[in-house]
Amino acid sequence: MSAPAAPTTTRTYSYLGPAGTFTEAALAQVPEAVGQNWRSVNNVGEALDDVVSGRSDAAMIAIENSVEGGVSVAQDALANIPGIQIIGEYLVSVNFVLVARPGTRIEDVRVINAHPVAYAQCHLWLDATLPNHEHIPASSNVAAASTLFEGSLADAAVAPPNITKHYDVELLAENLGDNPNAVTRFVLVSRTVVVSEPTGSDKTSLIVELPEDEAGSLLSLLEQFSTRGVNLSLIQSRPIGDALGRYRFVIDADGHIRDERVADALLGVKRFSPSVIFLGSYPRADKAVITHKTRYSNEVFADARDWLRGIVSGETASSD
Amino acid sequence: MSAPAAPTTTRTYSYLGPAGTFTEAALAQVPEAVGQNWRSVNNVGEALDDVVSGRSDAAMIAIENSVEGGVSVAQDALANIPGIQIIGEYLVSVNFVLVARPGTRIEDVRVINAHPVAYAQCHLWLDATLPNHEHIPASSNVAAASTLFEGSLADAAVAPPNITKHYDVELLAENLGDNPNAVTRFVLVSRTVVVSEPTGSDKTSLIVELPEDEAGSLLSLLEQFSTRGVNLSLIQSRPIGDALGRYRFVIDADGHIRDERVADALLGVKRFSPSVIFLGSYPRADKAVITHKTRYSNEVFADARDWLRGIVSGETASSD
Amino acid sequence: MSAPAAPTTTRTYSYLGPAGTFTEAALAQVPEAVGQNWRSVNNVGEALDDVVSGRSDAAMIAIENSVEGGVSVAQDALANIPGIQIIGEYLVSVNFVLVARPGTRIEDVRVINAHPVAYAQCHLWLDATLPNHEHIPASSNVAAASTLFEGSLADAAVAPPNITKHYDVELLAENLGDNPNAVTRFVLVSRTVVVSEPTGSDKTSLIVELPEDEAGSLLSLLEQFSTRGVNLSLIQSRPIGDALGRYRFVIDADGHIRDERVADALLGVKRFSPSVIFLGSYPRADKAVITHKTRYSNEVFADARDWLRGIVSGETASSD
Amino acid sequence: MSAPAAPTTTRTYSYLGPAGTFTEAALAQVPEAVGQNWRSVNNVGEALDDVVSGRSDAAMIAIENSVEGGVSVAQDALANIPGIQIIGEYLVSVNFVLVARPGTRIEDVRVINAHPVAYAQCHLWLDATLPNHEHIPASSNVAAASTLFEGSLADAAVAPPNITKHYDVELLAENLGDNPNAVTRFVLVSRTVVVSEPTGSDKTSLIVELPEDEAGSLLSLLEQFSTRGVNLSLIQSRPIGDALGRYRFVIDADGHIRDERVADALLGVKRFSPSVIFLGSYPRADKAVITHKTRYSNEVFADARDWLRGIVSGETASSD
């Protein structure tokens, strides 16, 4: 990561707090953030606003999880806020516990406070274990637990496992998550900077709008990548918001914008689309090395350009 | 619409209540539902469960809105509950008002109760008018208002315009919606029945899973439609939920499963995909007549089959 | 091969003669033709006319060779003569010798009689060995040699290796062919019959015209095959003949018209094209077994049809 | 045309002679060739060799006609001879007359001398008018007539209409051509030079080899053009000659190599193909103006490059 601020200065990182959230766990994976100033905020908008305004050097936000899909607020914010860029990607295993005020017994639980995403991920367990429960939505996973002590109507809360380090709660049950492999993907966002060098294991994120009123335009968009040998690991639609049926696409492409094939695909996409937002090229959390056919290598791109230049200039002409 | 129950019996329709919701407004558009039994339920799962269990003949649910995109809970329910089918589509203009307990002045409002989707749609107005407001999420647009009288911490609620017919609230402001053209799309769902006849203005809804670990498989899926001249009005990704990056696609195709080109595209999709769910073919709410090139007409499909049959049987052979 | 005449009757096979031609060598590979009546004709048109008129049961004609490509006369004849069908495919290695009247020395050869295709295949050898030679075109490879004794101006002739069995010629040189792997592909043609059963190693030949005035129509044609997993071993353009730039395409597809994926591709092609000629499905000369992904198997096609039928009929409905 | 030699020097143009051929008629359409040295040669190979060796400045050769398709010898020569380039395109209407030695009556004609291509174009007329005729192939359309006076066995010859200006022949019949709209396309070929400026009505010719052993590679080749909005007016297969089933493709694309979309398509083709031969970008004979969607204009290509450069350099970053 090319640090957005000088290394001698203390840097500030915003994250969805308070202490104990999964977002905090993601930020703990960033070596450059260790020992720096961590700023707890209330929502994604606030985190990104910190970056744009310069209050923070970077912000950690959840962008995709294996149960709920793209976190729509984050995707929409990235689509609408100019001047920011993804510089890193982090994965956090997601599981949940059921906690309550000390002395509560699980058979007495009727009203449960839970962030809607967490609630969706624990739905099967809750339906089976507490069939008559009622759900009150919370603003965050930690808030679900913390408000137990602030006059909440809830008897119990769904919370991250490390909540017990931060609050004096009673642990009623563990491993509530319906999917034991659940993972949430976080991205670290900074102001726009010079794109870092490729590592060979990179990802490039885009938000692309389709041309209007044209049959097959998604097909044409995908061909811009496939004809350059660029694989997509994510393609997700999000409504643009101005009319029913109008969508933009959030795309993660394998490779780095400094890879010739990715750059060429982006040129094709840019010419095709009325609006392309480059969100960043950054090292992959899964460390997977991106491979491709020889025909899509940087050398082949450079050779083709040399060939074309020779033809146009007539350099390859026979002397006479 | 082919009525799912005999006309002499009273039919039951489930909808997200209570009275005053947009879903109720959608149900009011169904001629067959007039004068029948309307059953108010608390969420989409309950509505669909009514249909599956036979408690209701049909259920009205929100499936897409112009601001928030596919209503994820509804899409996931349709993907996971067998034996149900979409039989109709309805559009409702969406706008919001700000209401409060009688005597409240707008300048005194600090805490606002609002369903998260409604809140997102009124975000700009609220930020501009009440910059210091705090948001409490409600379980429905009507509940946001009704809980004002049940000890809620909220000072005001975001609610549908006709809320004033049902509750004794004070109207503080109108037209809160950021997008004046906002529309929500609802579908009427019944148990699986014989598919109704095409009307010439139809839509076919599917949920399709992509083959795993195959580059370009979304491209291949889209080609199944484009090579048969079938246009898609909606393609939206939803996470399957078992692993990060695994998605299924919610698709609305122009035309009816009894149109040859749509049927042939569905055969292609079925052979290609590990899982296809047919959600229904039904008349379009926008009444748009679907046109296509002559080469995709039913007659051309029938002629091609005759031609093939003649070849294989040697019927077209010269006599000797 | 399903014999076009009853086995107890003597069958007649037409071929480009006289004895000694490569076409005769191809006919010698047909087990059913052994001991039957072989009819030597002067050109492809005559051979096919024999079949159409019933004078012959089948005709052997050259259809493609590795140097000259599609034999245009044969391809155009197949495109224009209705009621005929390819029922078999045969490969003959092609090489040439230089022969002359007895007593001729190679250093005395100046004028060479050769069929134009043979001449093209021996061009490099002739230019290197006899740089000052002159070429007189012959109507067939054997005629090139036989006319040496009929007052021809030629000093020598390019001919098939077995010419020395049939004519009293002096062998001046062997292995004239520029390409030692040269092979000519022949097809056996009969009147239209019931298509034979698939063998698992089959080829299907078509002639397809593209829709006029439509950008990308060749791409669309190829997609009809690729979306059904059908590989093409040959695609060759031939002018339609009515205007400059108007072409039809000669196509060899892997598989048999009784294979579901091939039949479905043909249906797609038929709907798309203003003119499709089915030339036949027949066992491959190279005996290569055609493989395909599971998704393109006959079972998958049948399952998809069952699935569609169930949906349309509502058979998959939940009972109530 | 950028003249390959200084304008004050006399230039030499090679063409398939002798005087009276269609090729001569094509050369007569070239303004720069008027009053220069015209060199009659015996075949296409000789004409191109004149250019390569410098004996001529340019050569006129037939490349496609509406009946016989690509003139295979010319296409193969262009594929195999380096250092030459197409600099112009010309169309000549093609029709034929039947001529004989003075005193011959049409009812006495039995043996007809004709170039094989001419013979094929007059086949229907000859079969109808002289059903018992015999055909002797000639080396050119003019030679067919001229050899009538050199001891030919032929009674009559098929020749171009203006043959009567050059030889003392008797005109037996006119308008023999089966297709009254028959046209032959000629190209003017010079040594490789700096490509001329686009005129807005241009054509770019290529010869492209497909990657081996790869299903769908022709489809991928065509996509290189379609994704850049480049239409193809000709795509024709020619055998490479080393093995059965190996083909290269002769392609005429709308537009000029100095058009950004064509250049970008050529880069894509070059990266994809094991062998690409650029034959030239030159003004179209039909003067058709090439149009395209705005998204494929030079400005859009330049804008996309600027956008990409800004992103990679971080120039679009917010200042801080």
From TrEMBL, chains A, B, C, D:
Domain Prephenate dehydratase: 12-191
Catalytic activity as recorded in UniProt: prephenate + H(+) = 3-phenylpyruvate + CO2 + H2O
CDD domains: ACT_CM-PDT, PBP2_Aa-PDT_like
Site (Essential for prephenate dehydratase activity): 184
ACT domain mapped to chain residues: 206-284
InterPro entries found in the cross-reference section: ACT-like_dom_sf, ACT_dom, Chor_mutase/pphenate_deHydtase, Preph_deHydtase, Preph_deHydtase_CS
One GO location term (cellular component): cytoplasm
GO molecular function: prephenate dehydratase activity
Pfam families: ACT, PDT
Protein name: Prephenate dehydratase
Top-level EC class as recorded in UniProt: lyase
Top-level taxon in the UniProt lineage: Bacteria
Keywords on record: Amino-acid biosynthesis, Aromatic amino acid biosynthesis, Lyase, Phenylalanine biosynthesis
PROSITE patterns the record matches: ACT, PREPHENATE_DEHYDR_1, PREPHENATE_DEHYDR_3
Pathway: Amino-acid biosynthesis; L-phenylalanine biosynthesis; phenylpyruvate from prephenate: step 1/1
EC numbers on record: 4.2.1.51
GO BP terms: L-phenylalanine biosynthetic process
